[in-house]
Amino acid sequence: MAPLGETAAGLARRALTAALRFLQTVANRRSVRGMALLDDRLLADIGLSRSDVASALAQPVWVDPSRDLAETVANRRKGRLWGRPLRRN
Do the domain assignments include residue 76? Predict the structure, then answer.
């Protein structure tokens, strides 16, 4: 069994990591809110729509919306939408 000090240090490290991750999520959420102010043409230039931004911001506060938007853009660049291939006629 680990000494009490090592367990406390490990717990403190995990708590600090979680707090820093949450603060980064809050900062990213603020940036995504700023993206909602962009016009539709600028959003389209980066591969997003206004509804993509709104959908990402509708996630719970502890979810990083920038990850969701990055995945959306990556899927569109691969010719995929919502994780499924687009049909080509």
Answer: yes
Q: Which domain holds residue 65?
A: 7-80
Instruction: Give the integer Cα–Cα distance in Å for 36 and 33.
Output: 5
The pTM score is 0.71
User: What mean pLDDT comes out for the span 7-32?
Assistant: 93
Q: Is residue 38 part of a domain?
A: yes
Note whether residue 59 is domain-resident.
yes
Assess whether pLDDT exceeds 90 at residue 79.
Answer: no
Confirm whether 18 is domain-assigned.
yes
In DSSP notation, 23-60 reads HHHHHHHHHHHHHTTS-HHHHHHTT--HHHHHHHHTS-
What mean pLDDT is predicted for residues 56-62?
Answer: 94
Cα dihedral 74, 20, 56, 53 sign: negative
User: Mapping DSSP to helix (H, G, I), strand (E, B) and coil, where does residue 1 land?
Assistant: coil
